[in-house]
Amino acid sequence: MVRMLANGVCLAALMLGAHAAKAAEAEQCRAVRMAEPGWNDLAFTTGVANVLLGALGYQPQSSVLGINVIYEGMKNNDLDLFLGYWDPAMVTYYEPYKKDGSVENVRVNLEGAKYTFAVPTYVWDAGVKDFADLHKFADKFGKKMYGIEPGSNQLMMDAIADRSLGLDGWQVVESSEAGMLSEVGYEIKEKQFIVFQGWAPHPMNTMYDFKYLTGGDKFFGPNFGAATVTTQVRKGYLQQCPNVAKFLKNLAFDIDFENVGMGYLINDGMKPEDGALKAITLNKNRLDAWLAGVTTFDGKPALAAVKEKLGL
User: Fold this and answer.
1) Which residues of the chain does CATH 3.40.190.10 include?
2) What is the pLDDT of residue 14?
3) DSSP character for 25?
4) Which residues does the UniProt record annotate as the domain ABC-type glycine betaine transport system substrate-binding (predicted)?
5) Phi/psi at 105 (nearest 5 deg)?
6) Which part of the chain is CATH 3.40.190.100?
7) Burial of 214 (0-12, 13-18, 19+ CB in 10 A)
8) CATH annotation of 114-225
9) Which end of the chain lies in a sparser environment, N or C, as judged by fewer CB atoms within 10 Å?
């Protein structure tokens, strides 16, 4: 009787363990529905999440959608998560969903983002360190500043219109991100003066030697147009899928990592998942923090499984 009871307890424990492994995450959590608006930084970070979730045994899906569509998708339970809430740039987009509680913040996944005027370091060394310095070198700049796509340079135009800066007669040269950076590269090669729209994260920060200008708080906000990026999910998702939730609470990036990773997409023409895999492979040490306390979909230790799956 004692032996039978002991055997029964052991069998029950084994069955319970097997059941626990299979039930590590509810089946409804296997598909992880993500979206990003087509921005290179978010394409890359979403690619990182895509690669890691796939290696954990989930079935991640990523779509490129407009910001409004992403928020409506999370509100209507058509999407699960979004890695790209830029604050303060997207405050007005998020406000109604924050108010009705349909979209929740998980964590800030990037700090140190910035967006303001920039000049080559040799121009900065020559005395152009602040917005207020630009007019002193108007002739050298040709009274031009270089922006990106039409409709995306309003803050440059606002600066020109601000009489306190003495930029009367200046103009914004609009083209595209690639067009602007091509001009920046040419002017730097020729050691000419140029002021342009700079931001981070972006590979331009590793491609060119330049400085961000102070004095633009009125237009871009303090600390060089400082911004943070936050991970967001639909209401209730963290409770429904606690293992993915743990992963999302761990997942964070930094400017240097994204600068390089975005370069794989922009300069090397890699797809987001391929660029993400390369970045992960070259930064294997990040997996310890990203996967701490996380399991695979079926309940196995995450770190060993991901390294095996990705051949690391």
Assistant:
1) 29-111+227-310
2) 41
3) S
4) 32-277
5) -85, 140
6) 114-225
7) middle
8) 3.40.190.100
9) N
| Tokens standing for residue 108 | 């800030």
Q: Would you call 277 exposed, middle or buried from its count of C-beta atoms within 10 A (0-12, 13-18, 19+)?
A: buried
> pLDDT tens digits for 173-200?
999 988 999 999 999 999 999 999 999 9
The strand ranges marked E within the chain are: 31-36, 59-64, 81-87, 103-120, 144-146, 171-173, 196-200, 210-212, 227-234
Kindly state the tokens that stand for 183. Answer: 């001009």
pLDDT digits (tens, 9 = 90+) for 103-128: 999 999 999 999 999 999 999 999 99
- Measured N-to-C along each axis, helices 40-55 and 272-282 cross at an angle, to the nearest 10 degrees, of 70
What is the pTM (predicted TM-score) of this model?
0.82
Using alpha carbons only, what angle is made at residue 62 by residues 60 and 66, rounded to the nearest 5 degrees? 150
Which CATH number does 29-111+227-310 carry? 3.40.190.10
How distant, in Å, are the alpha carbons of 16, 41, 70, 205, 236 from that of 263? 48, 10, 25, 10, 35
Quick check: helix, strand or coil at residue 10? helix
Cα–Cα distance, 63 to 109 (Å, whole number): 20
